[in-house]
């Protein structure tokens, strides 16, 4: 398969595909509909193969790399053949071709619940655009793109009035805090903050789950993010914190600026391009690919050499499904990328195409076997 990764050999693979098609019908190579399919193959297939190969380190994952390459070619051959069949038979077959699998689950969506200091809960997915509340001198609005906005309208009457923005499984949301800081919340997460943000001269928020922060600069008031296991202090920067209760390791990834982490009496400084991993009160810092950490914010699943458990946790949170393992778990590591807008079946098919895991979807439960 590595032969087909070379630019000069790309035409060879396309010729093989055409040859396979000619077994069924000599007109496939010149048929305009099929030509369109082949153009897409020519444009996309080798990018996917190369990305799959580059994303997987050498050594242990060599077998998986080969599986991914084989799966990529096999999938395209299948798509071309099915596409050809459809184009040649659409007048008779179009009514019998299902548009989606019978048992499929849609991806998550933009939504969250805002809990005000008085206990009132607002479903933001259903709320109309414009002003949705006033509290303690703060005006809360929903913007045209759905972002939750806080603006100070008058003197804050109760600076300690607390709000909580929470996402359920299958939800994600954005909020711009009174100081201008923009926060993205991943699924099954929450952010709690006061109307003024200020506590003892510092801007304070509490996070559970995962959030990406673009902190507004304010040298007089450092920005503090508290989780169940650590505090992250910044002046103005972009960073991501993954702090799910069911994850053994809490990860803080810095994209720009600088942050100081403290946990169990330990203090560490983080530089751009680094990730801090907190486990059992100990902080370890290393270089990382920041794109992996914030892929969710860009509506993608991106994994590099991850265990099946990590992948299934991501799937469970976003598609709001339960995961049950049947028999022995695969020890293989997986690498790849797929849109979070794809339905669950497509995501599972991509992982299953490696030959290292099998899935059975029943209702909202995914059974995973080796």
Automatic annotation (TrEMBL):
GO MF term list: sigma factor antagonist activity
Domain FecR protein, residue spans: 164-260
The protein's name in its UniProt record: FecR family protein
Transmembrane segments: 66-87
Taxon lineage: Bacteria, Pseudomonadati, Bacteroidota, Sphingobacteriia, Sphingobacteriales
Keywords: Membrane, Transmembrane, Transmembrane helix
Domain Protein FecR C-terminal: 301-368
PANTHER family: PERIPLASMIC SIGNAL SENSOR AND SIGMA FACTOR ACTIVATOR FECR-RELATED, PROTEIN FECR
Pfam families hit by this protein: FecR, FecR_C
